[in-house]
Amino acid sequence: MICLVRYSDRSFFDSLEQEPEITVCNSEKIGDVTEFNRIWPDFMEDMFIAASSRRYAAKVSPLMGFQRIYALMQCIPGSSSISCDACLR
């Protein structure tokens, strides 16, 4: 289970903080790099738009064969669309 608990002695609603940042990489090879590179930009743009307007988006993009791109983006409740979009990008 993944959860986030955030607390502060000041209001943090609609504040943009980009630290700490955690990056996890998949070590498996992409089967068709050309197909991945074709799908990736539009897939991410769709995710940015959906998540910044609703504060959450989850999507699966099919690739050739059995490979898929799984994406989840989320912003804190109370954040503006602009702050959410800036943080995600």
UniProtKB/TrEMBL annotation:
Highest taxon of source: Eukaryota
Disulfide bond keyword on record: no
Domain Gnk2-homologous: 18-89
Keyword Signal: yes
Keywords recorded for this protein, A-Z: Repeat, Signal
InterPro entries given in the database record: GNK2, GNK2_sf
Protein's UniProt name: Gnk2-homologous domain-containing protein
